[in-house]
Design goal:
The chain is of the alpha/beta class. Helix content is 59%, strand content 14%. Bound molecules: adenosine monophosphate.
């Protein structure tokens, strides 16, 4: 059973490639961003609390997302694809602990590498159709800064465990999907 993290900056193509990976390997797609946006759309107590944090491009607290992930692991006995999580080293450590407590471990982390200028271009392009209140020029820069300062160290965390697969995130969507599948199947 596979448990995979898809990793990369905002705009790197994690959502697009996630759809492909979950279909190919029969995994459940768990996106913390999607789960949090649903809380906001449903106007839950949690949703009201996190809206301004997300609109500012900041990370919500680890407790909130860790709880969502623990539940998602329990609800996906055939394996999970984690998208948008972990976003910092503490979350990565928690993920290892939570998987272990369910008798599982991480198979690999797939990192999509895309240059900064292209990330900004893609997010502003996506903004035209996504309706996401955090897809705007102001917030994008903040999200990239959060990524560079807090999330990027997660890449080294998995490299040290020998679990990082680095994929060039530039080019045709289907070529990137093929490169991801080949890298995972080689493990
Ligand atoms: P995403 O859809 O992955 O780009 O996430 C959108 C926003 O949700 C982020 O900018 C954060 O505010 C919040 N978020 C998503 N995943 C996490 C996480 N693992 N930890 C903290 N905040 C998160």
């Amino acid at each position: 059973m596979m448990n995979i993290v898809i990793f990369g900056a905002p705009g790197a193509g994690k959502g697009t490639q996630s759809d492909f990976i979950v279909n190919h390997f029969g995994l459940r797609h768990v996106s913390t961003g999607d789960l949090l946006r649903k809380e906001i759309a449903d106007q839950t107590e949690l949703g009201l609390k996190i809206k301004s944090i997300m609109d500012a491009g900041h990370l919500v607290s680890d407790d909130i997302v860790d709880q969502m992930i623990d539940r998602a692991i329990a609800e996906s006995p055939n394996g999970t694809l984690f998208d948008g999580y972990p976003r910092n080293v503490a979350q990565a450590e928690n993920l290892d602990r939570m998987l272990a407590s369910h008798g599982r471990s991480l198979t690999c982390m797939v990192q999509l590498d895309v240059p900064r200028e292209e990330l900004i271009r893609r997010i502003l392009e996506r903004a035209k159709v996504s309706g996401r209140s955090d897809d705007n020029e102001q917030t994008v820069k903040g999200r990239l800064l959060e990524y560079e300062s807090k999330t990027l160290p997660v890449s080294e965390y998995y490299a040290k465990q020998g679990k990082r697969l680095q994929i060039d995130g530039m080019g045709k969507i289907e070529d990137i999907s093929a490169a991801i599948i080949t890298a995972i199947e080689k493990l």
